Every structure is written in C-alpha cells, then in structure tokens.
C-alpha cells in the first residue's frame, strides 16, 4: 500500500504541463500593442496579400522556434538564449543576441510610450480634458513604470487584469465590427504589381509580430525536455496568433477604406489615429470606445511586460541587486531614456516599431537557424531535429536576412511607401 502511495505521489509530481498553457505563453508573448501597426504597414499591399504574407511569416517563425528548441535540447535546463548563442556562434553571437534583445526592449518601451500618449490624450479629450501628447507620454510612463518598479508580483496581478480586459474588449470590438465589414473595402481592385511593391516594407513588422522566441527555451524546461509537447505548444500558439491577426486585419481593413490610410500614415500612424479612423468609418455605436479601452490595455500590458524584462537585464548586466538603491538606479536607466524620448517625439510609434523590427528579425529568424546549423555540423542535435533538412533551415535563414536588409533599405528611404 505504501509502495502504491509512493508511486502515485511520484506520478503527481512529474505530471506533464498541458499543451494549452504553453500555447497561451507563445500567443500572449506575440500578441500585443504592435498589432496596431499591422494594418498601417500592410495598407499598401492590403488584405489578400497581407494574409498570404502573414501565413508565410508564421511558418518561418514557427520553424525558427523549432530550431531554437532543437538547440536548447543540447544544453542544461535553464540555459538562456545568449548561452546557446555564445557556445554556437562565439563571443560575437553572444554580443548580437544580447544587443538585439536590449535594443528591441528599449525601442519598444519608447514605442509603447509613444502609442500610449496618443491613446491617453484622446481618452482625456473624450471626457473634456485637454492634454498635450508630451504630457500624456510622461503620465503613461510614470504610471506604468511605477507598477514595474513595484516588483514582478505587482506586474503579475496587474497584467492578469489587463489581459482579461484585452480579451473582452478585443472580442467585443471584433463582434461589433464584423457585421459592418465591406467587401468593397476588403477586396478593392488593386493591380498585383502595385500591391506587391509594398510587400517589402511590411516584412520585418510581420516577422516581429511572431516574436515569441524569448520564451522557447523556457518551454523546453517547462515541459521537462519533452520535445513533442514543446512542438505542439509552438504550433498551437503560432496558429492562435495567426488567427487573431487575420481577424484583426479583416475587421480593420473591412471597415476603413484603403485610401484613408494615407491620412493615418501622414499623422504618424499612432494608435489613437487608427482607432479614430475606425470610429469614423463605421456606424456601430461603442466601437471606438471599446477599441480605445483595448488600445490602452494592449499598450500598457506590452509596456510592463517588455520593461520588466529590460529592468532585470539592466540589473544583471550592471550587477545591481534588488535593494531600493539598486532598483532606483536600474529604473532610471530603464525608464528615463524612453520617457524623455516619448515626451520629445510623441508621434514616433510606427518609426520606433520599424527600428525594433530590424533587430527583432535577427533575434527571431537569423540566429535560431544559424545555431541549429552549427550544432548539426558538430554532430549534435541527435535527440531532436526539426524536419525539412538544410533546405528548410536555409529558407528560414534566407528570409531572416532578407527581412534585415529590407528594413535597412526602408529606414534609408529606399523602398516605396504607401501614402
């Protein structure tokens, strides 16, 4: 009887986590405030071509997630991205991995402050309070950086509440707007040559929209190195993310005419500008308010998530402890630069997302296949290898390099821009 009890206790302690939980980690990491940039940067190629590109980007991101999981299987539990990068690609690989994560985190903090300033200012205006975008940026930064500085437990509680609100407002908005989707708006007669010329500018952002790769090695540990479960969680999470983006593109592009995006882009493509355009393009009451709440929650939850990771990175890099003095120093380094930039340039949401996409493309699509490639050449990765051989690895790697190059060309003003 005691043997049976012991066996039952062992079975309970080694029970494998469910697939859905891991999939939600993947989807939750990917989906955030950046989705407001999707229809803006996809306006040139529009709905049909953007969905095709989303499908291909989802495939490449899922594949690179598998390559990262494959690489992680060769290391101890808890080994992080930079550890694998250093061992496979040397000191330069570690520098690039750490640098891209830090750069993306800093620039996204600014992007979310910029986007948050527009939504806060618009929300204040709706209740009769005039607020400059610079003042709104400072308010957004102070309020939500305070939550992060209060500690991970506070972030956990607040994020849970915000995530629940996001789910309710997103599906509520989608439900209200689906009935007003116009096929004329969604599928206008656009020459393929014209729409395809705008693909390049959107590629890096589409890639970044599936940027869950910072969590992959944690999933390997989470599932106790059961690669089958890791693969299923990656696949389900990628599919959920893709479906949310398709619905988002459908309701936005089905309600806002393509030509109206020229004005949205001219005004900086900020979140409130897009939401206002949606409200003006549909007769459904309550849509603009619901989207404004969703926008506030999406920007806030994305900001606290990214900045918490950045705060920990700063502490680790500078060897600062969790004391009040150490936290204040790390907080100043983490929050002051993006907050000041947000106050000086509050309309830089789309531009900042573009810079983030440049570095994120390296993190998402270039390094994982390179690391897997090195390990296979060493004769490692015997426990698991993603299907597709070197053809699939080179396809993902090549697309990652393309994403980096086209974003560099975009930032240099060498690519056609819609509007």
UniProtKB/TrEMBL annotation:
Q: Does the keyword DNA damage apply?
A: no
Residue stretches spanning the membrane? 18-38, 44-69, 95-113, 133-151, 158-178, 198-220, 232-252, 290-314, 326-344, 350-372, 393-415
What Gene3D superfamilies does this protein map onto?
A: Amino acid/polyamine transporter I (1.20.1740.10)
Q: Which InterPro entries match?
A: Amino_acid_transport_2 (IPR018227), Trp/try_permease_CS (IPR013061), Trp_tyr_transpt (IPR013059)
One GO process term, biological-process aspect: amino acid transmembrane transport
Per UniProt, subcellular location reads as: Cell inner membrane
Q: Which key words are in the record?
A: Amino-acid transport, Cell inner membrane, Cell membrane, Membrane, Transmembrane, Transmembrane helix, Transport
> Topologically, how does it sit relative to the membrane?
Multi-pass membrane protein
Say if the entry is tagged with keyword Transport.
yes
Tell me the GO molecular function terms.
aromatic amino acid transmembrane transporter activity
Task: Tell me which stretches of the chain form a coiled coil.
Answer: none
Tell me, what does this protein do in biology? Answer: Involved in transporting aromatic amino acids across the cytoplasmic membrane.
Question: What name appears for this protein in its UniProt entry?
Answer: Aromatic amino acid permease
- UniProt lineage: Bacteria, Pseudomonadati, Pseudomonadota, Gammaproteobacteria, Alteromonadales
């Amino acid at each position: 009887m005691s043997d049976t009890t012991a066996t039952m206790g062992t079975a309970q302690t080694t029970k494998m986590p469910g697939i859905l939980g891991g999939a939600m980690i993947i989807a939750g990491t990917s989906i955030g405030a950046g989705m407001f940039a999707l229809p803006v940067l996809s306006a040139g190629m529009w709905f049909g071509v953007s969905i095709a590109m989303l499908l291909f980007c989802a495939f490449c991101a899922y594949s690179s997630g598998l390559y990262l999981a494959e690489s992680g299987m060769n290391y101890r539990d808890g080994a992080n991205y930079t550890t694998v990068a250093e061992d496979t690609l040397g000191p330069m690989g570690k520098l690039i991995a750490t640098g891209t994560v830090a750069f993306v985190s800093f620039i996204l903090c600014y992007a979310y402050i910029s986007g948050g300033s527009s939504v806060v200012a618009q929300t204040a205006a709706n209740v009769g309070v005039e607020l400059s975008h610079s003042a709104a940026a400072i308010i957004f930064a102070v309020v939500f950086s305070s939550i992060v500085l209060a500690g991970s437990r506070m972030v956990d509680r607040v994020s849970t509440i915000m995530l629940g609100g996001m789910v309710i407002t997103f599906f509520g908005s989608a439900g209200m707007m689906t009935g007003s989707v116009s096929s004329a708006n969604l599928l206008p007669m656009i020459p393929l040559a014209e729409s395809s010329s705008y693909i390049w500018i959107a590629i890096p952002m589409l890639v970044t929209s599936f940027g869950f790769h910072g969590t992959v090695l944690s999933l390997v540990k989470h599932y106790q190195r059961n690669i089958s479960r890791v693969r299923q969680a990656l696949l389900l999470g990628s599919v959920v993310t893709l479906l949310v983006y398709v619905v988002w593109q459908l309701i936005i592009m089905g309600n806002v005419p393509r030509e109206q995006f020229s004005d949205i882009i001219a005004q900086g493509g900020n979140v409130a500008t897009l939401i206002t355009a949606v409200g003006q393009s549909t007769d459904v009451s309550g849509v603009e308010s619901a989207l404004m709440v969703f926008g506030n929650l999406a920007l806030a939850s994305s900001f606290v998530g990214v900045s918490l990771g950045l705060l920990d990175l700063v502490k680790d890099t500078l060897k600062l402890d969790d004391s009040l003095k150490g936290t204040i120093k790390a907080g100043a380094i983490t929050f002051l630069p993006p907050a000041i930039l947000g106050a000086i340039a509050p309309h830089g949401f789309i531009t900042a997302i573009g810079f983030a996409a440049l570095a994120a493309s390296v993190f998402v699509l270039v390094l994982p296949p390179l690391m897997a490639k090195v390990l296979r050449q060493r004769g490692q990765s015997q426990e698991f290898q993603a299907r597709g051989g070197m053809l699939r690895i080179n396809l993902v790697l090549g697309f990652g390099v393309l994403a980096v190059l086209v974003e560099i060309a975009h930032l240099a003003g060498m690519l056609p821009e819609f509007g």
